[in-house]
Amino acid sequence: MAPRAAAQLFGWPQLNAALAEHRLTPPRLRLEQAGRDVTPGLFRSRRTRRGPVLQDLDAAVLTERLREGATLIVDAVNEISPALQALCSSLSAEFTATCQANLYACWGVTQGFDVHWDDHDVFVVQVEGRKQWALYGLTQAAPTRRGRGAEAPPPQTEPELVVLEPGDVLYLPRGFWHAAVGLGGPTLHLTIGLTRKTGADLLHWLADELQVEPGFRSDLPFEAGDAATGAALGGLLARLQREDPAALARRYRRHVEAALPQRPQLAFPHIGGDEPLSSDMRFVLGQGPARLETRQAGPVLSWRGVEFTISSRLESAMRRLLAGEPVSIADLRAAAPAASDDQLQRFVGELMRRGALVPQGAGGR
After folding, report:
1. Which of 122, 166, 253, 347 has the smallest count of CB within 10 Å of its CB?
2. Which domain does 341 fall in, by range?
């Protein structure tokens, strides 16, 4: 990545503006030093006239602790950076995963965290300055915090040392042991984390789905012996074998997409009422997982787990939207001349109401 492109995601100017314009409080904003939380005392409490107590960041205390070697951490900075939010949304859509970007800034030769591993994949983007990463490798493939990987010590080997310069990107798979240290001077990097679904997650979801079936709600007959219990389990497993794997995968994907965190994408002043939309008003597809599927009943637009059956005449317009191109109501009218203005207005209005379509320039793709 070019250094300038990295800086445009979230650099020093954006950090200064975020601290001045947003009320970032713990645990979203915190300080770490040598594996310890040194945030206490960073905020001053202030009671407002109406009663609520607000936490004001003490700039003097913050700069002093940073001078002493603390690392500043701000979570979810993608929520206050349009460029970073667009990147995270694209990654989330590509991998059907939760995606969040955190910021780390430090000054001098300092280390915020001890050697550790994360329970999600991480892309490290070095934005400003230089930082050295010690890479130890895996103790266990794809560990989870609920599994035994959380108990394992780091590999007892000499780490590989990698120095990141502005624009460099480092990929750390889930479970990869690592530690980072500043090399002097100010340094700022982003960690873009992807939390993906596992086979165990699917089984948890499937267990809830099967609660609607009496056979899966019935008690297991342990009192009748292992043979009887085994026969009951055999019946349940036979029922699962009748599931179409592709259809099951589609249902689970839709469930995951619908549950992904979503920042509001509104189309104010339009709120889905009766006001007519201009024919030359251009729309783009809202951020989030989207695809166009061909079904027996016709094309289906899937967006964030919600499916819209559309006319085959509008398929080319939908593919333009999926490619990131804007489309106007006039374009839809040209594609489907038999549709009335009222039908097109209601179609677009419904997609806008759900956030699938947003006016161009209002934060879509």
Report:
1. 253
2. 282-359
Q: Clarify whether residues 189 and 203 are in a common domain.
A: no
Inside any domain, residue 159: yes
Instruction: Round to whole Å and give the CA distance between 182 and 243.
Output: 53
Helix, strand, coil shares of the chain, percent, nearest 5, are 35, 25, 35
Beta strands in the chain (DSSP E): 29-33, 36-37, 43-47, 53-57, 71-74, 98-107, 121-128, 131-138, 160-164, 169-172, 176-182, 186-195, 282-285, 290-295, 298-303, 306-309, 327-328, 357-359
| Counted domains in the chain | 3
Mention every residue, 6+ apart, whose C-beta is less than 8 A from residue 151: none
CB 157 within 8 A of CB 216: no
In a domain? residue 273: no
Q: What is the model's pLDDT at position 270?
A: 74
Task: Identify whether residues 314 and 330 lie together within a single domain.
Answer: yes
Q: Which residue has the higher pLDDT, 275 or 359?
A: 359
pLDDT in tens, 17-39: 999 999 999 999 999 998 899 99
Alpha helices in 114-259 (DSSP H): 199-209, 214-217, 226-241, 245-259
Handedness of CA 282, 99, 137, 74 (dihedral sign): positive
- For residues 102 and 208, membership in a common domain is answered with no
Confidence check: pLDDT of 149 > 70:
no
The neighbouring-strand residues paired with 194 are 99, 121
Distance of CA 28 to the CA centre of its chain: 16
Residue where the block lists tokens 């040392």: 161
**Domain harbouring 135, CATH code:** 2.60.120.650
In this model, does residue 204 exceed pLDDT 70? yes
User: What are the residues facing 327 on neighbouring strands?
Assistant: 283
- Reading the block at residue 158, the tokens are 């000499």
Report whether pLDDT(132) > 70: yes
DSSP one-letter code for 157: S
Give the tens place of pLDDT for each residue, 285-331: 999 999 998 888 889 999 999 999 988 999 999 999 999 999 998 99
Global pTM reads 0.88
| Residue 141 sits in the same domain as residue 239 | no
d(CA 343, CA 358): 18
